[in-house]
Each structure stands twice: as C-alpha cells, then as structure tokens.
Write a structure and sequence with these properties.
Elements lengths: L3 E10 L2 H14 L4 E2 L6 E8 L3 H13 L6 E11 L5 E10 L1 H20 L9 E11 L2 H4 L6 E5 L1 E10 L2 E11 L4
Antiparallel strand pairs: 1-3, 1-8, 2-6, 4-5, 4-7, 5-6, 8-9
Helix pairs in contact: 2-3
Length: about 180
C-alpha cells in the first residue's frame, strides 16, 4: 500500500482511567502544539523502528523469554520538555516513584530487542509520557506552573506495538502482550 509505513515499539500501556486522568490534568496546562491522542498515551520502553515479519517473530520470542519482573506502581508527575522547557518541541510528563524500576524494565526490554538482532538503543532511556508535539519550538514554562499530576499508575504488562502511518493518520496496534509476573 503506497504511503503506508509501519514502525514498531515496546511500551507500558495505560488504563482508560489513567488516560482520562492525564487528559484532565493536561487540559489545565493549556499546552501548545499537537496533543497526543488520548488512546495513544503510553510509556515507551524501546522504539524499534522498521521490522520485517521474521524480526517481529524474533522480538516476540525474545520478550517472551525475558525476565520482565513483577507488577509495580509509579505516578505521572510534573511537566517537562525536550530539549528543555524554554524551547520545547515535545511536552512530556515525568514519571515518579520507583523510576529505577521503569529504567530496569527498559534495560531488560532493550536487551531482549538487541538479542533479536536489532542492536541496543543508542540514546539513554528517560522515563516520560509524551503529551504534545510542538512545532515550532515554544516556551512552556508557564504551563509547567500548573503543578504535577500525581496520577497513580500500576504497570502490569509490556506490549509490543505496531505503529501504522498512512498519510497524516497514525494508528497503534497491540501485537503481543507480556504480563509482568514475580518470580
């Protein structure tokens, strides 16, 4: 299909209740730019990119074998910006609480994806929830004064997603989920 592009990533999904709470908080921030659609809110653990059918099967097998650990909690926190609040191209929410747990999970996922033949992520992992994409860059320091969200989240699974872009529309498809289990 011409103009269609599939890319893949691994993420922590958010429950509908958490997404609604994030949306309520985000609406009070008056963020500029293009807001991430409510149903697309997630915490990316590892972006993979273009992957063929065999590569998808290898990633699923590697994630299935990975020691992902058990469920854990964290909170959606305050507003941040990439590359910085004063000149943001991305507005994001910090993830608070056991941030080391999210980072450790991202390392395990990165190792699994690497073992499937896709190398390690070159950029350091930074736990965040993307809220909006801003072009051209804007100063969002005033939005950040709205305070932190303090929304509790319970991570119970990791999901392998396909992101399908066709024209200006992008859809996320859950391909496989991996429950977080102790032991």
């Amino acid at each position: 299909m011409s103009g269609t592009r599939d890319r893949f990533f691994v993420a922590l999904p958010l429950t509908p209740e958490v997404r609604l709470a994030v949306e309520e908080w985000r609406s009070r921030l008056d963020l500029p730019g293009r807001l991430v659609a409510l149903e697309k809110l997630h915490v990316t653990l590892r972006f993979v990119g273009l992957v063929g059918r065999v590569g998808q099967e290898r990633i699923v097998a590697a994630l299935d074998m990975a020691a992902l650990g058990g469920p854990f909690g964290f909170r959606v926190g305050g507003l941040g910006g990439f590359p910085r609040l004063r000149k943001a191209t991305v507005a994001w929410a910090a993830l608070e609480g056991d941030g080391r747990r999210i980072s450790r999970l991202a390392e395990v996922v990165d190792d699994a994806v690497s073992s499937a033949g896709f190398g390690h992520e070159e950029r350091p992992f930074r736990a965040h929830l993307t809220l909006a994409r801003i072009r051209p860059p804007r100063d969002i320091r005033e939005s950040a004064s709205g305070g932190p969200a303090r929304i509790p989240v319970r991570a119970t699974e990791v999901v392998f997603y396909r992101s399908r872009t066709e024209g200006s529309s992008t859809e996320y498809h859950r391909l496989e989920s991996f429950p977080l289990r102790d032991g």
